[in-house]
Design goal:
The protein is mainly beta and 138 residues long. The protein has a single domain, classed as Jelly Rolls (Sandwich), CATH 2.60.120.630.
């Protein structure tokens, strides 16, 4: 199953968090939001199709994420978990840890926002930049 979410850049994107990556439907972003790679997202955890939520709640599920901006693509691999809540109305967070809250989409991911290529971050610091966050489950 594949699901795509569109998002925008923002001048305050820093992308230097070592444990998470976040996209949000919010349009505001302070420099403290250092895991956020996109704003004005078209979907949050709560907006995901039920079929995808069911797949994400399988502990054996491998989940792949792709962040595409311009000619750049960044791929992350993570895991589903039976305790995922997936009800947050604004945010999606993927985590290297196994912490779960309503914003958590996947756990035990192999990368965080600090590893996004700096050229990609430079593009994302322009509010006119559009990106795509793709979720694929096996």
């Amino acid at each position: 199953m594949k699901f795509e979410i569109q998002f925008s850049g923002h001048e305050n994107i820093r992308s230097n968090h070592q444990k998470t990556i976040e996209i949000t439907k919010e349009s505001r972003l302070t420099p403290q939001g250092d895991c956020i790679v996109g704003v004005n997202a078209t979907s949050s955890c709560n907006d995901l199709p039920q079929e995808l939520k069911d797949k994400l709640r399988n502990s054996d599920a491998k989940v792949f994420f792709s962040i595409r901006v311009g000619d750049h693509e960044f791929v992350i691999e993570g895991n589903g978990h039976p305790d995922l809540i997936l009800t947050h109305n604004d945010d999606i967070v993927i985590r290297k840890s196994d912490f779960i809250c309503p914003r958590t989409l996947a756990v035990k991911c192999d990368k965080a926002s600090d590893l996004l290529p700096r050229a990609m971050i430079s593009l994302l610091q322009d509010p006119k930049t559009r990106g795509t966050f793709t979720i694929t489950t096996d």
